[in-house]
Amino acid sequence: MGEFEVHRVRFFGLVPAGVRCMAYQHNGRRLALARTDGAVEVYNFAANYYMEKAIPGHQTRSVEALCWAAGERLFGAGLSGDITEYDLERLRPARAVDGFGGPIWSMAANNDGTRLAIGCEDGSVKLFQVVPGGGVQFEKNLDRQKGRVLCLSWHPSGTHLAAGSIDFIRVLDVHSGRTAQRIMVNCHVPKSKKRECVVWSIAFLSSGTVISSDSFGRVQFWDWERGTLQDSHTVSSSAALSLAVSEKEDSIVVGTSAGATYQFQLLPVKAGGQEKRWVRTKPFQHHTHDVRAVVHTPTALISGGLDAQLVIRPLMEKVQKKGYDAALRKFTLPHRRLVSCARKARLLLFQFSQHLELWRLGSTNKTGKDGETLPLSRMPEHLLQLKSKGPEHIYCSCVSPCGSWIAYSTASRFHLYRVQHEGDSISVKKVPGVPKLLLPAYQLQCASDSGRLFIASDRGSVHVVQLLEPGGCKHLHTLRPPAGTREAVYLLASSADGNWLAAVSGDWEVHVYSLKHFKHHCTVPTYSCAVTALAIHPTTNNLFISYSDQQLFEFSIPEKQYTAWSRAVQNSGLHKLWLERDSPITHIAFNPKNTSQVLLHDVYMLCVLDKSLPCPQPLPDDSAVLVNQSTLKQLSEPARRRQLHAFKICKKFQPLLFADLLDERCLVTVERPALDISAQLPPPVQQKKFGT
Amino acid sequence: MVAPAALRVVRCGGRAMHGARAVFSVGARFLLCASGDFVKMYSVATEELVQLLRGHSDLVTGVQLAPHNRLQLYSSSLDGTIKLWDFTDGILIKTFTVGYQLLALYALPSSEDSVFVIIPKSGERDTFQLVSVKLTKAAGQDMEAKELSVVLEGVDASPKCTAFGREGEYVASVKDVNLQVYFFKQKQLNRFSLRATNKKGGNNVFTCVACHPQEDCIATGHADGKIRLWRNFNHKKEYTFSTLHWHHDKVLDLAFSLEGTSLLSGGVESVLVQWHCGSDCKRDFLPRLGSAIEYVSISSDGTFYCTSHTDNRITIINSNLRFSKTIQGLIKARDVKTGLVVDPRTKALVLNGEPGHLQFYCLQSDKQLYSLDIVQQEYIHQAGLNQSDLVRVAFSAQGKWLATVEEREETDLELQLKLWFFDEETQSFKLNTRISMPHEDHITAMCFRDTDEMEDDSLMLVTTGRDCVFKVWVILEDTDPEAQQSLSWSCDFVGSYHSYQATNCCFSEDGSLLAVSFEETVTVWDSSTWDLKCTFCHPPGKISGMECSPQRRRSAT
């Protein structure tokens, strides 16, 4: 693959926010996830668990509960007291309705998605009707009792609601609004250690069983009509925080504050008998901290914790064959590019939730052998920290290749800065007269000559802004897809010669525009998967696209068709091990000197794709291994030649946030070691381990 | 004169009592256990041996009450026979000859006239199969039982690794990392396997299995101390299990209580653990049972539990986990360093017992009389730990004094000579004198001056060591009235011969002469003046033993 001088950057102090709550939509196979900083993400399970949408957070908007209602509409509620509907096309909160009950702790949608119930701080449970056009409308108040309502669950028939508070559970009749049953949960605890018992999560089964998980670490099964305890399982010495039931109601998953999740199954006591019992079966320990949210899909248990991990654990007995779907998946880092690189100026711009950091890379004047660490003659330097004003979090950011322009956008503001480098000192000036654009911007991209800035906007449009020396800008044109779309553009790529721009909108359409004439040039044939990264080759003007199912396409812009190489790859198929990788490719770069080399990376590997070499053939028995570079190096010369293939994979840098080629000999990688993230987290619940 | 017949060895005692799970009779009055070639019946109330069922000519491997007549008992043996006994009267009713080595026996109420046994598979080494044997009802004492039908192939030889489920509907068997369950009615065989080791260093090898008496639930014990409760195992794919973990090492046996509400488990920790199978995972413990628990069984009315231990002991435990009775056989010590010594007072055989203990074993009743803690230190069950062990023991002529030597070898040698006085009041030995490092090196031999008539003050102890000396120890009367003990031992004389290692010693019958051997030489010393009388040389080779003949003042070497 050739040797590179690698800048191994580890000073990006990103700490992903913990997972607060999750909601799964069974029909669309989408998972909505809210983080503790108020950000909402949507993962598409059909598109290989790709993080399809991301709505950045807001300082004052915490999300305590999420639910899907009325088909594909996503609602969130939080401590601000509002019910918010999210606009998943324009990736921002659309409408908010005040619940008038103080902070909202819980929200649940009934089975047909027509009504929302919220549980408030003041102890009231309120019903809201989901209005077909958009938004929600207050319907009625149910019986109010003192004590915040921490969790809610609808009976599948929609006639009753179970609500969990501190020390008790209530079952409410939806029609009359009365409390039909009130169950005290801590009456089995000896008086001496009586303290308040918080019911953290609740589930109402169609059989009339109410399942609760509480701060004593118990999972309890109640008969709601009689108010009697059927079964009690203590799963943890600390709290059992979250609970989810499978659709068939024969299995539940419980998350605890010790980081463990447990599965319970409803199993027949005797084979063929009618009597069934809930049995605790499998424990899983994938998290180190509180598991705040769990979801039970038909084939997998999904858990999200305060350690920011999203874990998808497939149930082996439900998966038909071993392979892609049977593998355990963990996502910690977002599937978005948070780093932008000024190649010429050797600067890196890091995007945090509320500020940006500009760093200059270190440099060395030594050369060494393969694998050696070179001493730095100049240390990497933290040049600048730009704090965004206001409570909104940053959507996107970019630094121009020459390093003299920085742009970022929040939900309501767009900022452009001119950075002046004078020797070692640096000065930042806000560019005045930024054109009033439709905001937010979803992606920013600078042309390679730093003369233009491309701003991705909603409804598939891209604004082209000319950057003027010495610090001004002018709106040139707005590019729109010919057919029109409702979805926002989330990825951009511009060509090196400044003639072409490719834009991907949320419906996964790739449009290519000619920048000479500000005209739509062509559309890449649609493919049924999300685009994870794209780039235009600097010399051949071929558009290189990677999809979330790990397929790679090369599309010739001038000829408006797939290239011969791309067709050859599609005909032979990619290697099984390549297709079964976990994480999507998030960035594509090219070697400016060698036109056949393409640099791709995901979280766990870096790959230099050499198009001049043959692709590894997927053998019928799948026995061929996709040998990576370090193994290849140990092989003998003839064996190495036999194993030589186009995918030159390097797994040395993990977990990888960003990788780019500064020039043909120089590579920059940005890593975020998992240990550094966990060091930033508070200490987990102390657990006694045998032998310590 | 009658010509001497061919020598016949009769095994009359000391056999391991943990050959098979012990069985309670109906009403829990008697406990039946296999012991060597016999089946022994003990009274639960008095722990006395009530009946000895002898008839097998090889080790008894299984004892089961006859399912249809609870006063009868089946026993299986390596000699290839199943015998049916009337155990209350000790009468052998029938013998069924199977013709294979029988390694385990299971009798079920649901299967009429047939029992299940584990036999080696013919033609293959170390593979075993579970077969059902039809026991014909015809009259006659000796029957052939050749109607065998194979139920499961490739089972483990241990009786713990196979168990029959609720009402005999299925049989579960474990071997290595595989569990197989065979359903008799559906004729369906399900196999489940675990990974041999997991990422966290667990060892998933199965060690034992037990079936819930009323539900479809199988409990399996594992080599890393985990217990798995399997459910839904009638589905090949949607089976599931939950894990209980307390033991830190191998789970050696499991047993469900009568109603299946609790599970008993035992292992090398010598703690009986009672798991309450209800929803909350509570557990109770009965600790300090002495040694590793080999088998756990439960009486048919559930009032008693019984644990068989590796040190040849059976403990009977009340169902509320209170220790009730213990039946102790001859302990097989890891290394009998003391040799066999007879206690002159009780005529019991004295040898190493539990680690650091001296056991007094009565040959006539095949019972341990008592166990004397010599080392008086906690024994830690951990491999590779050097702990003090008892190496030499000697009694005085009337058994009034007992001398013991214990040693611990780390980088340096630690030696202790202890002298014990028999206390008539408490009827046990009391520590009188403790001497640290009596010799610089290992003590090779030790003897008292065996003089019947003489008084206490002439009692003497000689020890020989590899540090080339022998030492003579005598009793000193303590004149200090404050001191509690009036007698104590101290060194009187140290003798050596050309810096040879002293290997053996013995007194002449009247106690006037002491013979000490130094490698190849025997030296004779006057016991009153400690003069060297004469030396005998015994070339070539070292003297390994020496004994004084009683009458003729002659020494045999």
TrEMBL record, chain B:
Record keywords, A-Z: Nucleus, Repeat, Ribosome biogenesis, rRNA processing, Transcription, WD repeat
Classification via InterPro entries: Beta-prop_WDR75_2nd, WD40/YVTN_repeat-like_dom_sf, WD40_repeat_CS, WD40_repeat_dom_sf, WD40_rpt, WDR75
Species, as recorded: Gallus gallus (Chicken)
WD repeats, residue ranges: 53-95
Molecular function GO terms recorded: RNA binding
Localization per Swiss-Prot or TrEMBL: Nucleus, Nucleolus
WD repeat-containing protein 75 second beta-propeller domain location: 340-545
Protein name, UniProt field: WD repeat domain 75
GO BP, sorted A to Z: positive regulation of transcription by RNA polymerase I; rRNA processing
Entry GO terms, CC: small-subunit processome
Top-level lineage group: Eukaryota
Kinase in keyword set: no
SUPFAM superfamilies in UniProt: WD40 repeat-like (SSF50978)
Keyword presence, Repeat: yes
Major location category of this protein: nucleus
